[in-house]
Write a structure and sequence with these properties.
Blueprint (H helix, E strand, L loop, with lengths): L3 H15 L4 E6 L10 H8 L3 E8 L2 E8 L4 H14 L3 H9 L6 E8 L5 E5 L9 E7 L4 E5 L6 E5 L17 H4 L10 H6 L9 H11 L12 H20 L40 E5 L2 E5 L6
Antiparallel strand pairs: 1-6, 2-3, 3-4, 4-8, 5-7, 6-7, 9-10
Helix pairs in contact: 1-8, 7-8
This protein binds a DNA duplex through loops.
Length: 304
DNA sequence: AGGTTGACCTGGACGC
DNA sequence: TGCGTCCAGGTCAACC
């Protein structure tokens, strides 16, 4: 169940291992579910591309790809065509300013869903069940996408602007931009935190933990929170996420790092998964309720 | 239209 | 042992 800290950890691990490598070929499994773009589109975008960087956007892992101009021959023919078609002096001046043909840029987007993993392995490593995609790298290694429950998604973006999603990054947003996200909303605060179109990257675990630290009940309507309470929540969300990133994410069930190592430190959850156990502040039993189909944990005494 | 619910999917835990 | 049932939760379509 990768949320922002887990995806951040995975993206950093992948960056260390695969940046600079070139994707030579791609194999995509027969099941179409994990693909948001067509298999054809993914394959043609990835094959031959160099991985320039790996980063996180919300809960998405983004590979920035660049492809050198395919060959000198195509390049000359393309530019020749363009010059002959538009031969105005203006056009020539623009071309003169950019002597090098720009490289093609694209993004490979991976959403891990609930159980997705991206593994860097030697080619002879045993093929895990539910392997849906394999990218063979020029270094000889393979980048494998494994996802038993198939909630994960693969896609490619070729637009000039690159990949973007709605919502703001909780670790980048200013308090002044944070407040209006919740101001006129009647939904429970828990649901608001999970809404990726408002804040991107917060999932069930860190929503519960943030609300606990801010002393806010998960069912509390967003619009009823004072500016002071929102300030507490703002700080709590950032604190929880930063602590979790520092710890390498919460290691639960099938969450593992880029080489399959399971050894991340368990984050100190104060309410999540602690139903019936005493609150670490006051000793009251932690309650579990269901909001929007998600289990939510809170202390009835500390959270109002 | 904003808010809420259920379907998707599989493996693991649990009860009988 | 083995089967059935429930639960996990990210996202989206469909509903209220």
């Amino acid at each position: 169940m990768p949320e922002l800290p887990e995806v951040e950890t995975i993206a950093r691990g992948l960056a260390q291992r695969v940046v600079g490598d070139v994707i030579e070929s791609v194999w995509l499994g027969s099941k179409p579910e994990p693909l948001k773009s067509s298999a054809q589109e993914i394959a043609t975008t990835l094959e031959g591309a160099r991985i320039q960087s790996v980063r996180r956007v919300g809960k998405h892992i983004v590979f920035d790809l660049e492809r050198p101009p395919t060959s000198a021959k195509t390049r000359t023919s393309k530019s020749a065509r363009r010059t002959s078609r538009k031969n105005s002096p203006d056009n020539r001046r623009v071309r003169a300013k950019t002597p090098a043909e720009p490289v093609e840029i694209a993004n490979w987007i991976v959403h891990l869903g609930m159980t997705g993993q991206l593994l860097v392995c030697p080619p002879d490593a045993e093929l895990a069940k539910h392997t849906h995609a394999i990218a063979k790298l020029a270094s000889g290694r393979e980048l494998r996408f494994v996802d038993p429950r198939r909630f994960g998604r693969l896609s490619v973006v070729r637009s000039q602007n690159g990949f973007e999603t709605a919502g703001v990054e909780p670790l980048d947003v200013s308090f002044d931009a944070f407040v209006p996200l919740f101001r006129k909303r009647k939904l429970p605060m828990k649901s608001a935190l999970l809404n990726q179109k408002l804040l991107r990257g917060v999932g069930n675990i860190y929503a519960d933990e943030s609300l606990f630290r801010a002393g806010i009940r998960p069912r509390r309507r967003a619009a009823t929170l004072s500016r002071e309470k929102l300030c507490l929540l703002y700080k709590s969300v950032q604190q929880v996420l930063q602590e979790a990133i520092a710890a390498g994410g919460s290691s639960i069930s099938d969450y593992v790092g880029a080489e399959g190592e399971p050894g991340f430190f368990q984050m100190q959850h104060r309410v999540y998964g602690r139903e019936g156990e005493p609150c670490l502040n006051c000793g009251t039993a932690i309650k579990r309720i269901v909001i929007a189909g998600r289990s939510s944990h809170y202390c009835p005494h500390c959270q109002k």
